[in-house]
Amino acid sequence: MSLRPGTVFLSDCPARSAIEIIASKWAVVTIFALSKGPLRHGELVELIGGVSRKVLTQTLRRLQASGLVERRVYAEAPPRVEYGLTELGRSLEEPIAMLTEWARSNGEAVARSREAGIQAADAD
């Protein structure tokens, strides 16, 4: 892949659009949560700390429209709805697992650096 100006992630590039879809913290966390299998909306809310029902719904809709998540409605009373990864969505499992492992291993270092930067900015 070339890194010359104008060759990576042009504004109309499909790769850039794909990155924008999964760049949201809620998209990555939602895909990671669904990597273990289909879940209901309420289960996702419980599993993903800090996400509101509204934001999760918006995230699921965006991921569904992008072909990464599928919504299954079961003909039961009351209706049961589950969300799961599509084949395309499952192709993100390994990269997101690697990113998650990096975050677990380096999260404290990042937090310390951010705190040091905030303190330095306050001292100016």
From TrEMBL:
Keywords of the record: DNA-binding, Transcription, Transcription regulation
PROSITE patterns, alphabetized: HTH_HXLR
SUPFAM superfamilies on file: Winged helix' DNA-binding domain
Domain HTH hxlR-type positions: 13-111
Keyword Cell inner membrane set for record: no
InterPro entries: HTH_HxlR (IPR002577), WH-like_DNA-bd_sf (IPR036388), WH_DNA-bd_sf (IPR036390)
Claim: Metal-binding is one of the keywords in the record: no
Pfam family of the protein (one): HxlR
Name of the protein in its database record: Helix-turn-helix domain-containing protein
